[in-house]
Amino acid sequence: MQSIAHTYKRYRTLQTHRISALPVVILMPHSACNCRCVMCDIWKDNKNLKQLTPQHIGGLLNALKEFGTRQVVMSGGEALLNTNFFELCKILKSCNIKISLLSTGLSLKNNADDLLRWVDDIVISLDGDEPMHDAIRNIPNAFKKLKEGVEHLKAINPAYRITARTVIHRINFRNWPNIIAAAKAMGIDQISFLPADVSSHAFNRQTAWAEPKQHEVMLSERELPELQEVVDNMLAQTADFDGRYIAESPAKIKDIYNYYAAFYKLNPFPYKKCNAPWVSTVIEADGSVRPCFFHDTIGNIHDNSLTEILNTNKAIDFRRTLDMSKNATCVKCVCSLNLSPMATL
Fold first, then answer.
1. Angle CA(204)–CA(209)–CA(214) in degrees, nearest 5?
2. At how many degrees (to 10) do helices 54-67 and 85-93 cross?
3. Is the pTM above the cut of 0.90?
4. Which of 14, 206, 253, 333 has its CA 20 to 30 A from that of 272?
5. What's the rounded Cα separation, in Å, for the pair 160 and 274?
6. Secondary structure class of 299 (helix, strand, coil)
7. Which residues pair with 25 in a beta bridge?
8. Residue 301 · residue 289 · CB < 8 Å
9. 91-104 pLDDT per residue, tens
10. Among 266, 263, 240, which residue's Cα sits nearest to residue 253?
11. E strands along 106-254, which residues?
């Protein structure tokens, strides 16, 4: 049960813009990735390896305790490439922190026992049925390894929660029904969808994508009616929404169409209610700290403590003056987080 003191601190954070509670922390334990996805540039910098060590995580513990952090999300790159990954988990578990893993799924089977022991739930990336997934991941047998890993974990512990996340874009939007079918067939508990980020510096882009690269991933205007038809057919499958197999509401699924249509000024970008910079932070493999995946760095844990970084005058002013309805990064954001002070994790 969440304490009254922690709830109060979360309210105060929203009111004062000074972080006194931080329910969620996203860590990137390893900078490299074992896939070569078309919508992501992380793998292009694999040779310049950076990673978080047990010493780095140990150095964060005082701040995590002070802020009452409830959940750490291990993101990447591929977090499991860090050879000390489970040691990092062990350190965090000593503070009763829930651990979620975002993974390509390629090495789930090889790490099954440790995953079941140290990780509370897994979110895998699923891009299509087998041919489509392998084409987008640009890795042979990516789908087969993912499926074997999920099925192996479920065979050991059927109640272990594994969900999927799919980025819908120009290459796979026609494959959308097959993505849902593939998730169900391998035993995924729930699936969520979001459009592709084509405009920010996230995912290791040294510069934001120029128009030719954007249009490799972003739907063309002439493809929008076809996307609308795919969305309409999805929404007709009401059982997937009523039972929450699809995590998003029908309105959120419609917003994937609206997001791409907005680039052609057919409608505004979908409104997103988000408080990510007030309830979470992102710590990258090189120690850089961000308010969320998409905004610029505000410090580095190699130079200052997390507590100091989050509550500098610059960081507080950033939160105080952030108008998400006008900020260009927020307006085009594809992945928002809105966590109320009363929400438990």
1. 120
2. 30
3. yes
4. 206
5. 29
6. strand
7. 72, 281
8. yes
9. 999 999 999 999 99
10. 240
11. 121-125, 162-168, 190-195
